[in-house]
Amino acid sequence: MKHIGRLVIGALIFLVFFILLIFLSGAGCLGISSPETNATQQGKIPGTGGIHSETSTAIPTINAQWQVGPEELPHEERFAAAIGSFDETYIGSMDCSNKSETFETNYTYFSGAERGTISYQLVPVKYVRDTTEVPFPDDILNATIEPASFTAEPYHRYTSHVRITVGPNVTGFISPSRFWNPTFPFYLKVQRDAGNVSEANDWVQAAKLCAFIPGLGSLMRSSPGFDLNTQENLSLRVGEKVSLPLTVRDFGGGLREEYFEIPGMLKGDDYSFPIKSEELAPFPPGMTVSVEPLQILGRSFRTYDMNLVIETTRDVQQGTYNFPLVLCYRNLASPVSASGKYPFENTRYCDTSTSFEVNVIP
Prior knowledge:
Blueprint: H1 2-27, E1 32-33, E2 39-41, E3 51-52, E4 55-57, E5 71-72, E6 83-86, E7 90-93, E8 101-110, E9 116-124, E10 140-146, E11 149-152, E12 156-166, E13 173-174, E14 179-180, E15 183-192, E16 195-196, E17 202-208, H2 214-220, E18 225-228, E19 234-237, E20 241-249, E21 256-261, E22 265-266, E23 280-281, E24 287-292, E25 295-298, E26 303-312, E27 319-331, E28 349-361
Parallel strand pairs: 7-17, 19-28
Antiparallel strand pairs: 1-8, 2-4, 3-10, 5-12, 6-8, 8-12, 9-11, 9-15, 10-12, 13-14, 15-16, 15-17, 18-20, 20-26, 21-25, 21-27, 22-23, 24-26, 27-28
């Protein structure tokens, strides 16, 4: 019954997300612009780190909102290793017309403890999560990242601007039996002093949506999810300790801080979400439940393995106990806006949950 309830909740959340996407697209809140420009002859532009077809569109001046300079990180929020991600995984529109459109976002790079020369290369690939370069699509007039090279000082944050222009006469379609959305995935290869920086490589996909399909929805999904690999009846003895594998799956959303909460014990087999205080009881005496590690640094299209740890003492009573497991996260804050615990936003989101059952036996 609780599985059916969560499916219904999930469907409602998906519906609300879709309606919100339509609203944001119309309001220009997805970092989308759609200038109608005249095609001009231009080749590859030196220093932009992008790839251009022989026929390209004149690039408009970068808006002030994209102009972000390097920023030194506070001591308490420095990453030892270099890391980076796009601010948005999906950039696009729900405009099915045949006009040319330009989609924009930022890429954020944290330099870590080492100084070095950083270079970016934005290349087309078959699909998101693929790293094999393919021929440049004829329907893309330009795909650039600026700046594409710079000298990074230790413990700094650097922001580059990404612009992808989809050429004219690029449209999808939808019919009773078929549909097609023009999608264009790109992979960002990051190098420091000619060496690969694996934790800074990332994907972005430009798209013109005519039909909303689940596959593309996963790319646009901002909330992480998880797989809890428990058996149907998890049992442990009094005084025993067990560790269960737990996998977090990140979709879109960029760099974020993720952590778990187990707010108490469920009074019944089912619960609402968000969980109400009246649905919870204190932890049973003699039992502790935790996640190791409790906090991770999540990035788009990665999975992270950790453990759900359950331990009992001789004081625990035999019986069956149900617990909720909530996955919370804080997104990366914009460098031009105030944040709570830099570099992440003060606002936290706890919109993913599951539950697990524990049987304590003699």
